[in-house]
Design a protein that fits this description.
The complex is a heterodimer of chains A (398) and B (123). Chain A is built from nine helices and 21 strands. Chain A is an alpha+beta fold and 398 residues long. The N terminus and C terminus of chain A are likely disordered. Chain B is built from four helices and nine strands; from the N terminus they run βββαβββββααβα. The chains are: A alpha+beta (398), B alpha+beta (123).
Chain lengths: 398, 123
Amino acid sequence: MPDQQQSHPQQSDARQPSALRLSPLHQVHVDAGASFTDFAGWQMPVRYSSDLAEHHAVRSSAALFDLSHMAEILVTGPGAAAALDYALAGKISAIGIGQAKYSLLLSPEGGIIDDLVVYRTHENRYGVVANASNRFEAAGALAARAADFDVTVFDESDGLALIAVQGPSSLAIMEKLGHLETVKPVRDLAYYWSTMGTYRGNEILVGRTGYTGEDGFELYIRAEFATELWRDLMAAGEEFGIVPAGLASRDTLRLEAGMPLYGHELGLDTFPSQAGLGRVVNLKKEGDFVGREAIEAGAPEDARKLVGLVSEGKRAGRAGYAVFSADDREVGVITSGALSPTLGYPIAMAYVDPAEIEAETPLFIDVRGTRVAASVTPLPFYKRPTQNESDPAKGTSK
Amino acid sequence: MTDLASLRYTAEHEWIAVDGDVATIGITAYAAEKLGDVVFVELPTVGDAVEEGKVVGEIESTKSVGELFAPMNGTVTAVNDAVVSSPELVNSDPFGEGWMIKVAFTALPTTLDADEYDALVGE
Protein backbone atom coordinates (compact mmCIF):
# COMPACT_ATOMS: atom_id res chain seq x y z
CA MET A 1 0.00 0.00 0.00
CA PRO A 2 -0.49 2.69 -1.31
CA ASP A 3 0.67 3.05 -4.82
CA GLN A 4 -1.27 6.19 -5.52
CA GLN A 5 -2.14 6.65 -9.11
CA GLN A 6 -3.42 10.19 -9.08
CA SER A 7 -1.91 13.51 -8.23
CA HIS A 8 -1.63 13.18 -4.52
CA PRO A 9 0.50 14.07 -1.57
CA GLN A 10 3.77 12.26 -1.84
CA GLN A 11 6.27 11.96 0.92
CA SER A 12 8.63 14.27 -0.89
CA ASP A 13 6.23 17.18 -0.31
CA ALA A 14 7.18 17.40 3.31
CA ARG A 15 10.85 17.30 2.52
CA GLN A 16 10.85 20.26 0.15
CA PRO A 17 8.43 22.76 1.60
CA SER A 18 10.58 25.64 0.46
CA ALA A 19 9.92 24.73 -3.16
CA LEU A 20 6.21 25.27 -2.71
CA ARG A 21 4.35 28.51 -2.38
CA LEU A 22 2.23 29.03 0.70
CA SER A 23 -1.19 30.62 0.87
CA PRO A 24 -1.57 33.76 3.00
CA LEU A 25 -3.91 31.52 5.04
CA HIS A 26 -1.32 28.78 5.51
CA GLN A 27 -0.99 29.16 9.27
CA VAL A 28 -4.77 29.09 9.68
CA HIS A 29 -4.81 25.75 7.88
CA VAL A 30 -1.94 24.34 9.94
CA ASP A 31 -3.75 25.37 13.10
CA ALA A 32 -6.92 23.68 11.82
CA GLY A 33 -5.02 20.42 11.32
CA ALA A 34 -5.14 20.40 7.53
CA SER A 35 -3.36 17.85 5.36
CA PHE A 36 -1.63 19.51 2.47
CA THR A 37 -1.03 18.66 -1.14
CA ASP A 38 1.22 20.06 -3.82
CA PHE A 39 -1.08 21.74 -6.29
CA ALA A 40 0.30 23.76 -9.20
CA GLY A 41 3.37 24.68 -7.18
CA TRP A 42 1.39 25.61 -4.09
CA GLN A 43 1.04 23.80 -0.83
CA MET A 44 -2.73 23.86 -0.31
CA PRO A 45 -5.10 22.03 2.04
CA VAL A 46 -6.27 18.76 0.52
CA ARG A 47 -8.56 18.02 3.48
CA TYR A 48 -8.91 19.00 7.12
CA SER A 49 -10.36 15.82 8.56
CA SER A 50 -12.64 13.96 6.18
CA ASP A 51 -13.00 14.84 2.51
CA LEU A 52 -16.40 13.12 2.45
CA ALA A 53 -17.65 15.17 5.38
CA GLU A 54 -16.38 18.34 3.70
CA HIS A 55 -18.14 17.36 0.49
CA HIS A 56 -21.43 16.69 2.29
CA ALA A 57 -21.13 19.98 4.19
CA VAL A 58 -21.16 21.88 0.89
CA ARG A 59 -24.22 19.98 -0.34
CA SER A 60 -26.15 20.34 2.93
CA SER A 61 -24.93 23.53 4.60
CA ALA A 62 -21.69 25.35 3.85
CA ALA A 63 -17.94 25.11 3.67
CA LEU A 64 -15.06 27.51 3.27
CA PHE A 65 -12.35 27.02 0.66
CA ASP A 66 -9.02 28.78 0.39
CA LEU A 67 -8.41 29.32 -3.32
CA SER A 68 -5.61 31.82 -2.99
CA HIS A 69 -3.54 29.84 -5.46
CA MET A 70 -5.82 31.01 -8.28
CA ALA A 71 -4.40 33.71 -10.54
CA GLU A 72 -5.97 37.14 -10.84
CA ILE A 73 -5.03 39.33 -13.77
CA LEU A 74 -6.34 42.87 -13.98
CA VAL A 75 -7.13 44.40 -17.36
CA THR A 76 -7.81 48.12 -17.09
CA GLY A 77 -8.16 51.08 -19.40
CA PRO A 78 -10.43 52.49 -22.11
CA GLY A 79 -9.59 49.61 -24.44
CA ALA A 80 -10.15 46.84 -21.89
CA ALA A 81 -13.42 45.51 -23.32
CA ALA A 82 -12.10 45.49 -26.88
CA ALA A 83 -8.85 43.86 -25.79
CA LEU A 84 -10.71 41.07 -23.99
CA ASP A 85 -13.07 40.57 -26.94
CA TYR A 86 -9.94 39.95 -29.02
CA ALA A 87 -8.09 37.90 -26.42
CA LEU A 88 -10.91 35.63 -25.24
CA ALA A 89 -13.58 33.45 -26.84
CA GLY A 90 -16.60 35.28 -25.41
CA LYS A 91 -18.04 38.71 -26.03
CA ILE A 92 -16.71 40.33 -22.89
CA SER A 93 -17.81 43.81 -23.98
CA ALA A 94 -21.41 42.65 -23.67
CA ILE A 95 -21.35 42.02 -19.94
CA GLY A 96 -22.52 44.70 -17.57
CA ILE A 97 -20.67 46.25 -14.68
CA GLY A 98 -20.87 43.73 -11.86
CA GLN A 99 -21.41 40.80 -14.16
CA ALA A 100 -19.11 37.81 -14.43
CA LYS A 101 -18.60 35.50 -17.37
CA TYR A 102 -17.02 32.11 -17.86
CA SER A 103 -14.70 32.22 -20.85
CA LEU A 104 -11.82 30.56 -22.64
CA LEU A 105 -8.37 31.67 -23.66
CA LEU A 106 -7.87 29.96 -27.00
CA SER A 107 -4.71 29.24 -28.90
CA PRO A 108 -4.57 30.32 -32.56
CA GLU A 109 -5.16 26.63 -33.37
CA GLY A 110 -8.43 26.63 -31.41
CA GLY A 111 -7.09 24.73 -28.41
CA ILE A 112 -7.68 25.83 -24.83
CA ILE A 113 -4.82 27.63 -23.08
CA ASP A 114 -6.97 28.17 -20.02
CA ASP A 115 -10.54 28.46 -18.88
CA LEU A 116 -11.27 31.47 -16.74
CA VAL A 117 -13.84 33.75 -15.18
CA VAL A 118 -13.96 37.44 -16.08
CA TYR A 119 -15.48 39.87 -13.60
CA ARG A 120 -16.36 43.31 -14.90
CA THR A 121 -15.90 45.33 -11.74
CA HIS A 122 -15.96 48.86 -13.19
CA GLU A 123 -16.61 50.56 -16.53
CA ASN A 124 -13.05 49.96 -17.74
CA ARG A 125 -11.72 47.44 -15.28
CA TYR A 126 -11.94 43.66 -15.54
CA GLY A 127 -10.57 40.99 -13.25
CA VAL A 128 -9.62 37.79 -15.04
CA VAL A 129 -9.32 34.73 -12.81
CA ALA A 130 -7.15 31.97 -14.24
CA ASN A 131 -6.05 28.56 -13.04
CA ALA A 132 -2.94 28.55 -10.85
CA SER A 133 -1.27 26.05 -13.15
CA ASN A 134 -1.78 28.39 -16.11
CA ARG A 135 -1.00 31.66 -14.41
CA PHE A 136 1.96 32.65 -16.54
CA GLU A 137 0.49 31.32 -19.78
CA ALA A 138 -2.70 33.27 -19.18
CA ALA A 139 -1.05 36.49 -18.01
CA GLY A 140 1.45 36.31 -20.85
CA ALA A 141 -1.15 35.70 -23.51
CA LEU A 142 -3.39 38.47 -22.21
CA ALA A 143 -0.50 40.94 -22.16
CA ALA A 144 0.60 40.00 -25.67
CA ARG A 145 -2.93 40.13 -27.09
CA ALA A 146 -3.62 43.48 -25.41
CA ALA A 147 -0.49 45.10 -26.78
CA ASP A 148 -2.32 47.01 -29.53
CA PHE A 149 -5.10 48.24 -27.23
CA ASP A 150 -5.23 51.12 -24.78
CA VAL A 151 -5.03 48.94 -21.68
CA THR A 152 -2.82 47.88 -18.84
CA VAL A 153 -2.52 44.19 -17.96
CA PHE A 154 -1.34 43.52 -14.44
CA ASP A 155 -0.88 40.17 -12.75
CA GLU A 156 -2.23 40.80 -9.27
CA SER A 157 -2.06 37.17 -8.11
CA ASP A 158 0.67 37.61 -5.53
CA GLY A 159 -1.23 40.26 -3.64
CA LEU A 160 -4.67 38.69 -3.55
CA ALA A 161 -6.35 36.01 -1.52
CA LEU A 162 -9.49 34.19 -2.63
CA ILE A 163 -11.92 32.62 -0.18
CA ALA A 164 -15.01 30.76 -1.35
CA VAL A 165 -18.11 30.19 0.78
CA GLN A 166 -20.09 27.42 -0.85
CA GLY A 167 -23.30 25.66 0.07
CA PRO A 168 -27.01 26.38 0.63
CA SER A 169 -26.27 28.34 3.82
CA SER A 170 -23.83 30.65 2.06
CA LEU A 171 -26.19 33.59 1.75
CA ALA A 172 -27.21 33.43 5.41
CA ILE A 173 -23.55 33.34 6.40
CA MET A 174 -22.65 36.28 4.17
CA GLU A 175 -25.51 38.28 5.65
CA LYS A 176 -24.36 37.45 9.15
CA LEU A 177 -20.77 38.42 8.41
CA GLY A 178 -20.07 41.76 10.02
CA HIS A 179 -17.83 44.56 8.82
CA LEU A 180 -18.93 43.98 5.23
CA GLU A 181 -20.37 46.81 3.18
CA THR A 182 -21.20 46.20 -0.44
CA VAL A 183 -22.45 48.46 -3.21
CA LYS A 184 -25.19 45.95 -3.93
CA PRO A 185 -26.67 43.79 -1.15
CA VAL A 186 -25.27 40.29 -1.48
CA ARG A 187 -28.76 38.77 -1.50
CA ASP A 188 -29.56 40.76 -4.65
CA LEU A 189 -26.67 39.23 -6.54
CA ALA A 190 -27.85 36.78 -9.16
CA TYR A 191 -25.67 33.83 -10.09
CA TYR A 192 -22.59 35.10 -11.90
CA TRP A 193 -22.96 38.67 -10.67
CA SER A 194 -20.66 40.47 -8.28
CA THR A 195 -20.29 43.63 -6.28
CA MET A 196 -17.46 45.72 -4.98
CA GLY A 197 -17.41 46.58 -1.31
CA THR A 198 -15.34 46.96 1.79
CA TYR A 199 -14.57 44.52 4.53
CA ARG A 200 -13.22 46.20 7.67
CA GLY A 201 -12.58 49.18 5.43
CA ASN A 202 -10.53 47.26 2.86
CA GLU A 203 -11.60 46.74 -0.73
CA ILE A 204 -13.31 43.44 -1.45
CA LEU A 205 -14.93 41.87 -4.50
CA VAL A 206 -17.83 39.55 -3.74
CA GLY A 207 -18.98 37.33 -6.58
CA ARG A 208 -21.89 34.91 -6.55
CA THR A 209 -19.77 32.32 -8.26
CA GLY A 210 -18.23 28.99 -7.46
CA TYR A 211 -17.09 25.60 -8.60
CA THR A 212 -19.19 23.23 -6.54
CA GLY A 213 -22.65 23.19 -8.11
CA GLU A 214 -24.13 24.90 -5.05
CA ASP A 215 -25.06 28.45 -4.25
CA GLY A 216 -22.10 30.36 -2.96
CA PHE A 217 -19.83 33.35 -3.00
CA GLU A 218 -16.22 34.00 -3.87
CA LEU A 219 -14.42 36.77 -2.03
CA TYR A 220 -11.32 38.48 -3.36
CA ILE A 221 -9.34 40.55 -0.91
CA ARG A 222 -5.77 41.66 -0.38
CA ALA A 223 -3.71 38.85 1.13
CA GLU A 224 -2.95 40.65 4.38
CA PHE A 225 -6.65 40.75 5.32
CA ALA A 226 -7.40 37.15 4.43
CA THR A 227 -6.84 35.60 7.86
CA GLU A 228 -9.25 37.94 9.58
CA LEU A 229 -11.89 37.41 6.89
CA TRP A 230 -11.51 33.62 7.13
CA ARG A 231 -11.93 33.69 10.90
CA ASP A 232 -14.93 36.00 10.69
CA LEU A 233 -16.55 33.73 8.11
CA MET A 234 -15.95 30.64 10.25
CA ALA A 235 -17.52 32.47 13.21
CA ALA A 236 -20.49 33.67 11.15
CA GLY A 237 -21.00 30.16 9.82
CA GLU A 238 -20.68 28.35 13.10
CA GLU A 239 -24.41 28.10 13.74
CA PHE A 240 -24.84 26.63 10.25
CA GLY A 241 -22.16 24.01 10.79
CA ILE A 242 -19.65 25.53 8.39
CA VAL A 243 -16.41 23.58 7.99
CA PRO A 244 -13.18 24.37 6.17
CA ALA A 245 -12.86 22.22 3.06
CA GLY A 246 -9.88 21.16 1.00
CA LEU A 247 -9.10 20.49 -2.63
CA ALA A 248 -10.14 16.82 -2.44
CA SER A 249 -13.77 17.72 -1.82
CA ARG A 250 -13.57 20.60 -4.28
CA ASP A 251 -12.68 18.08 -6.96
CA THR A 252 -15.52 15.65 -6.20
CA LEU A 253 -17.97 18.55 -5.94
CA ARG A 254 -17.05 20.00 -9.33
CA LEU A 255 -17.09 16.53 -10.89
CA GLU A 256 -20.66 15.90 -9.68
CA ALA A 257 -21.59 19.30 -11.07
CA GLY A 258 -20.12 18.33 -14.45
CA MET A 259 -17.63 21.19 -14.42
CA PRO A 260 -14.43 20.70 -16.40
CA LEU A 261 -11.01 20.93 -14.80
CA TYR A 262 -8.09 22.19 -16.83
CA GLY A 263 -5.55 19.45 -17.41
CA HIS A 264 -8.28 16.81 -17.19
CA GLU A 265 -11.18 17.77 -19.43
CA LEU A 266 -9.51 20.80 -21.02
CA GLY A 267 -6.15 21.29 -22.68
CA LEU A 268 -4.30 22.73 -25.63
CA ASP A 269 -5.38 19.76 -27.72
CA THR A 270 -9.06 20.23 -26.87
CA PHE A 271 -11.49 22.16 -29.05
CA PRO A 272 -14.19 23.87 -26.96
CA SER A 273 -16.92 22.00 -28.85
CA GLN A 274 -15.41 18.68 -27.81
CA ALA A 275 -15.75 19.68 -24.17
CA GLY A 276 -19.34 20.84 -24.64
CA LEU A 277 -18.19 24.46 -24.47
CA GLY A 278 -19.08 25.46 -28.02
CA ARG A 279 -21.54 28.04 -26.71
CA VAL A 280 -18.72 29.76 -24.78
CA VAL A 281 -17.15 30.73 -28.11
CA ASN A 282 -19.00 33.66 -29.64
CA LEU A 283 -18.55 33.49 -33.40
CA LYS A 284 -21.14 36.24 -33.89
CA LYS A 285 -19.12 38.96 -32.18
CA GLU A 286 -17.64 41.55 -34.51
CA GLY A 287 -13.94 41.59 -35.18
CA ASP A 288 -11.29 38.98 -35.02
CA PHE A 289 -10.34 37.08 -31.91
CA VAL A 290 -7.57 34.64 -31.29
CA GLY A 291 -8.70 31.19 -32.34
CA ARG A 292 -11.63 32.33 -34.50
CA GLU A 293 -10.34 30.94 -37.76
CA ALA A 294 -9.60 27.53 -36.27
CA ILE A 295 -12.96 27.37 -34.49
CA GLU A 296 -14.79 28.34 -37.67
CA ALA A 297 -13.00 25.53 -39.49
CA GLY A 298 -14.26 23.29 -36.71
CA ALA A 299 -12.98 20.24 -34.93
CA PRO A 300 -12.40 17.12 -37.04
CA GLU A 301 -15.61 15.13 -37.52
CA ASP A 302 -14.21 12.15 -35.67
CA ALA A 303 -13.03 14.25 -32.71
CA ARG A 304 -14.00 12.68 -29.39
CA LYS A 305 -16.63 14.34 -27.25
CA LEU A 306 -16.88 14.74 -23.52
CA VAL A 307 -19.61 12.67 -21.92
CA GLY A 308 -20.71 11.64 -18.47
CA LEU A 309 -20.53 7.99 -17.49
CA VAL A 310 -22.29 6.31 -14.61
CA SER A 311 -21.72 2.79 -13.43
CA GLU A 312 -22.88 0.42 -10.73
CA GLY A 313 -21.01 -0.88 -7.72
CA LYS A 314 -18.30 1.07 -5.97
CA ARG A 315 -15.31 0.91 -8.30
CA ALA A 316 -14.82 4.21 -10.08
CA GLY A 317 -13.07 4.73 -13.37
CA ARG A 318 -10.13 7.08 -12.93
CA ALA A 319 -8.33 9.54 -15.18
CA GLY A 320 -6.53 7.68 -17.93
CA TYR A 321 -8.60 4.50 -17.83
CA ALA A 322 -9.68 3.21 -21.24
CA VAL A 323 -13.31 3.05 -22.29
CA PHE A 324 -14.59 0.24 -24.53
CA SER A 325 -17.68 -0.13 -26.68
CA ALA A 326 -20.21 -2.94 -26.30
CA ASP A 327 -18.38 -4.74 -29.15
CA ASP A 328 -15.06 -4.34 -27.34
CA ARG A 329 -13.41 -1.56 -29.33
CA GLU A 330 -11.43 1.04 -27.41
CA VAL A 331 -13.54 4.14 -27.94
CA GLY A 332 -12.46 6.58 -25.28
CA VAL A 333 -10.59 7.54 -22.17
CA ILE A 334 -11.66 8.80 -18.76
CA THR A 335 -10.54 12.28 -17.71
CA SER A 336 -11.96 12.39 -14.16
CA GLY A 337 -13.80 9.89 -12.06
CA ALA A 338 -14.82 9.08 -8.51
CA LEU A 339 -17.37 7.28 -6.43
CA SER A 340 -19.84 10.14 -6.13
CA PRO A 341 -20.24 11.05 -2.46
CA THR A 342 -23.67 12.56 -3.07
CA LEU A 343 -25.09 9.97 -5.46
CA GLY A 344 -23.41 6.86 -4.06
CA TYR A 345 -22.42 5.38 -7.41
CA PRO A 346 -19.35 5.85 -9.59
CA ILE A 347 -19.34 8.78 -12.00
CA ALA A 348 -16.79 9.82 -14.57
CA MET A 349 -16.22 12.19 -17.43
CA ALA A 350 -14.65 10.73 -20.54
CA TYR A 351 -13.78 11.63 -24.09
CA VAL A 352 -15.40 9.08 -26.40
CA ASP A 353 -15.83 8.61 -30.13
CA PRO A 354 -18.80 10.56 -31.54
CA ALA A 355 -20.67 7.34 -32.36
CA GLU A 356 -20.85 6.52 -28.63
CA ILE A 357 -22.12 9.76 -27.12
CA GLU A 358 -25.88 9.15 -27.11
CA ALA A 359 -27.41 8.97 -23.63
CA GLU A 360 -27.68 5.43 -22.30
CA THR A 361 -25.10 4.06 -24.73
CA PRO A 362 -23.67 1.03 -22.92
CA LEU A 363 -19.90 1.22 -22.54
CA PHE A 364 -17.26 -0.51 -20.45
CA ILE A 365 -14.53 0.98 -18.33
CA ASP A 366 -11.30 -0.93 -17.93
CA VAL A 367 -10.81 -0.62 -14.16
CA ARG A 368 -7.34 -2.06 -13.68
CA GLY A 369 -8.02 -5.10 -15.78
CA THR A 370 -11.71 -5.58 -14.98
CA ARG A 371 -14.42 -4.42 -17.39
CA VAL A 372 -17.00 -2.42 -15.49
CA ALA A 373 -20.30 -1.71 -17.27
CA ALA A 374 -21.11 1.97 -17.64
CA SER A 375 -23.74 4.08 -19.33
CA VAL A 376 -23.53 7.47 -21.04
CA THR A 377 -25.49 10.08 -19.12
CA PRO A 378 -26.10 13.81 -19.65
CA LEU A 379 -24.01 16.24 -17.60
CA PRO A 380 -24.18 17.41 -14.90
CA PHE A 381 -24.53 14.35 -12.68
CA TYR A 382 -25.84 16.49 -9.87
CA LYS A 383 -27.96 19.61 -10.00
CA ARG A 384 -28.87 21.50 -6.90
CA PRO A 385 -32.60 21.37 -6.15
CA THR A 386 -33.31 25.07 -6.65
CA GLN A 387 -31.04 25.68 -9.61
CA ASN A 388 -32.75 27.56 -12.41
CA GLU A 389 -33.04 25.60 -15.64
CA SER A 390 -32.30 28.70 -17.67
CA ASP A 391 -29.14 29.50 -15.75
CA PRO A 392 -26.78 30.80 -18.42
CA ALA A 393 -23.69 29.38 -16.79
CA LYS A 394 -25.02 26.08 -15.56
CA GLY A 395 -22.73 23.16 -15.66
CA THR A 396 -19.60 24.88 -16.77
CA SER A 397 -19.07 27.82 -14.51
CA LYS A 398 -16.19 27.79 -12.17
CA MET B 1 -5.64 0.01 21.74
CA THR B 2 -2.99 -1.60 19.65
CA ASP B 3 0.56 -1.19 20.87
CA LEU B 4 2.14 0.26 17.75
CA ALA B 5 5.62 -0.61 18.99
CA SER B 6 4.69 -4.30 18.93
CA LEU B 7 3.89 -4.24 15.22
CA ARG B 8 6.14 -4.81 12.26
CA TYR B 9 5.92 -2.52 9.24
CA THR B 10 6.69 -2.56 5.54
CA ALA B 11 7.88 0.12 3.17
CA GLU B 12 4.48 -0.31 1.45
CA HIS B 13 2.89 1.27 4.55
CA GLU B 14 1.40 -1.93 5.89
CA TRP B 15 1.53 -3.21 9.44
CA ILE B 16 1.92 -6.82 10.49
CA ALA B 17 0.89 -8.26 13.86
CA VAL B 18 2.42 -11.69 14.34
CA ASP B 19 0.68 -14.31 16.50
CA GLY B 20 2.45 -17.65 16.20
CA ASP B 21 2.42 -18.54 12.53
CA VAL B 22 -0.43 -16.21 11.59
CA ALA B 23 0.06 -12.57 10.63
CA THR B 24 -2.69 -9.97 10.75
CA ILE B 25 -2.14 -7.32 8.09
CA GLY B 26 -3.50 -3.81 7.66
CA ILE B 27 -2.42 -0.41 6.38
CA THR B 28 -0.89 2.23 8.61
CA ALA B 29 -2.56 5.39 9.82
CA TYR B 30 -0.09 7.30 7.66
CA ALA B 31 -1.28 5.45 4.57
CA ALA B 32 -4.94 5.87 5.48
CA GLU B 33 -4.45 9.56 6.04
CA LYS B 34 -2.71 9.99 2.70
CA LEU B 35 -5.49 8.17 0.89
CA GLY B 36 -8.26 10.21 2.45
CA ASP B 37 -11.68 8.77 3.12
CA VAL B 38 -11.65 5.12 2.05
CA VAL B 39 -14.82 4.19 0.17
CA PHE B 40 -14.08 0.74 -1.24
CA VAL B 41 -12.01 -2.23 -0.12
CA GLU B 42 -11.49 -5.42 -2.07
CA LEU B 43 -9.84 -8.35 -0.32
CA PRO B 44 -8.75 -11.84 -1.37
CA THR B 45 -10.68 -15.01 -0.47
CA VAL B 46 -9.94 -17.27 2.50
CA GLY B 47 -7.76 -20.10 1.29
CA ASP B 48 -6.00 -18.05 -1.39
CA ALA B 49 -2.27 -18.59 -1.62
CA VAL B 50 -0.46 -15.27 -1.57
CA GLU B 51 3.03 -14.38 -2.67
CA GLU B 52 5.31 -11.80 -1.10
CA GLY B 53 5.13 -8.47 -2.91
CA LYS B 54 2.08 -9.38 -5.01
CA VAL B 55 -1.11 -7.35 -5.01
CA VAL B 56 -3.89 -9.08 -3.08
CA GLY B 57 -6.41 -6.29 -2.64
CA GLU B 58 -7.42 -2.74 -3.40
CA ILE B 59 -8.17 0.20 -1.16
CA GLU B 60 -9.89 3.12 -2.86
CA SER B 61 -10.59 6.56 -1.52
CA THR B 62 -12.68 9.14 -3.32
CA LYS B 63 -9.62 10.29 -5.21
CA SER B 64 -6.97 7.59 -5.05
CA VAL B 65 -6.45 3.90 -5.51
CA GLY B 66 -4.13 2.03 -3.18
CA GLU B 67 -3.10 -1.58 -3.43
CA LEU B 68 -2.79 -4.13 -0.67
CA PHE B 69 0.38 -6.17 -1.04
CA ALA B 70 1.05 -9.53 0.55
CA PRO B 71 4.06 -8.91 2.79
CA MET B 72 4.98 -12.62 2.84
CA ASN B 73 4.24 -15.96 1.22
CA GLY B 74 1.41 -17.86 2.81
CA THR B 75 -2.28 -18.71 2.82
CA VAL B 76 -5.15 -16.39 3.66
CA THR B 77 -6.90 -17.68 6.78
CA ALA B 78 -9.29 -14.79 7.37
CA VAL B 79 -10.46 -11.57 5.75
CA ASN B 80 -12.11 -8.67 7.52
CA ASP B 81 -15.65 -8.56 6.13
CA ALA B 82 -16.39 -5.57 8.35
CA VAL B 83 -13.88 -3.41 6.50
CA VAL B 84 -15.45 -4.42 3.16
CA SER B 85 -18.92 -3.40 4.30
CA SER B 86 -17.66 -0.36 6.24
CA PRO B 87 -14.55 0.93 4.48
CA GLU B 88 -14.46 3.96 6.79
CA LEU B 89 -12.96 1.66 9.45
CA VAL B 90 -9.66 2.02 7.57
CA ASN B 91 -9.64 5.70 8.51
CA SER B 92 -11.21 5.50 11.95
CA ASP B 93 -9.18 2.57 13.29
CA PRO B 94 -6.45 1.50 10.85
CA PHE B 95 -4.51 -0.52 13.44
CA GLY B 96 -7.59 -2.16 14.95
CA GLU B 97 -11.00 -2.71 13.37
CA GLY B 98 -9.58 -1.64 10.04
CA TRP B 99 -7.40 -4.76 9.69
CA MET B 100 -7.48 -6.41 6.26
CA ILE B 101 -6.40 -10.04 6.19
CA LYS B 102 -4.76 -12.83 8.22
CA VAL B 103 -2.10 -14.94 6.55
CA ALA B 104 -0.63 -18.26 7.75
CA PHE B 105 3.07 -18.21 6.92
CA THR B 106 6.18 -20.27 7.36
CA ALA B 107 8.76 -17.51 7.18
CA LEU B 108 8.62 -13.77 7.79
CA PRO B 109 10.26 -11.31 5.43
CA THR B 110 12.55 -8.54 6.61
CA THR B 111 10.37 -5.83 8.12
CA LEU B 112 10.73 -2.45 9.81
CA ASP B 113 10.17 -1.80 13.48
CA ALA B 114 8.10 1.15 14.65
CA ASP B 115 11.08 3.50 14.90
CA GLU B 116 12.31 2.57 11.46
CA TYR B 117 8.85 3.04 10.00
CA ASP B 118 8.42 6.41 11.66
CA ALA B 119 11.75 7.44 10.19
CA LEU B 120 10.58 6.29 6.76
CA VAL B 121 7.50 8.49 6.82
CA GLY B 122 9.32 11.35 8.48
CA GLU B 123 7.26 11.41 11.63
